[in-house]
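Record Zinc-type alcohol dehydrogenase-like protein, 336 aa.
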Amino acid sequence: MKAVALTHYLPIENPKSFLDVDLPKPVASGRDILVAVRAISVNPVDTKVRAPKDTIEETPRVIGYDASGIVESVGPEVTLFKAGDEVYYAGDITRSGTNQQFHLVDERIVGRKPKSLSFAEAAALPLTTITAYEAFFDRLHIDREGADKGQTVLIIGAGGGVGSIGIQLAKAAGLVVIATASRPETESWVRELGADHVVNHRKDMVAQVRALGIHTVDHIAIFNDMRHWETAVELIRPQGGIVSIDDTDLPMPMGGMKMKAASLHWEFMFARAMHQTPDMIEQHNLLSYVADEIDAGRIRTTLDTVLSPINAENMRKAHALIETGTAKGKVVVEGF
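=>
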């Protein structure tokens, strides 16, 4: 089967940073399904895994953590899917990645592909959807069904992949969304996705939020990096919650959090699969829920850019675009 792999961890401009290779077709066992991959998307985690280092792989390594496709075959313990089903999912960072023609994945972290979306549109969603969903509903305990309607959420880094779906999930739950964006095109993008207010995270966010007549916010999601930690502590309401997807070596003073009895949560969407948690199937459930919301017209894809076909050249282009840090929405590579 065709695959895009690496043997050396090189700068993305190096033509050997990704290679077109031919690998044996996997065989499904246990609770795995074998997916004929139709489209993949590239996330910042892909670029972090591929980042230059001295390691050399003895056999080609396939990365990639988003896919949509058609179930080719299933393992003997599979109960959720059958051959021919259309699916979307984000995979498992401890296993071989999605940048290959046929891919094995545990059924418990796979969702039914939204019927109303193309494979490219669906591939844009899984990793960021799981991240934003878990951040809001599992970590911050916001009520998905609207019991917290009218509460405020500040989404820092709202124009990226996680923020783009996060805006929509927060709005669907009835929240007032304050999104951050630093460029005219990303400001337009987040407004289009439903943000109620937009502030610039490259300027004084505290002043901008308070100029809206909002002194503190109920929830804060840091979806870019922890440079904004002290701003978040200043803006969170007493007994509110902050969730972050960024690990950091930057100082994180906790005095303000203590005085407010505020909570800090970490979101890492690979945790369930990595640790084989008893509730792994919740990722199947949430992806299927979001598929229903999409098919009902309440949530839209966050796809922005499509490259084709899936090969080493286009994978280098996609990684280069993500590494600029200026991409809005998602970058998808489609078709082998």
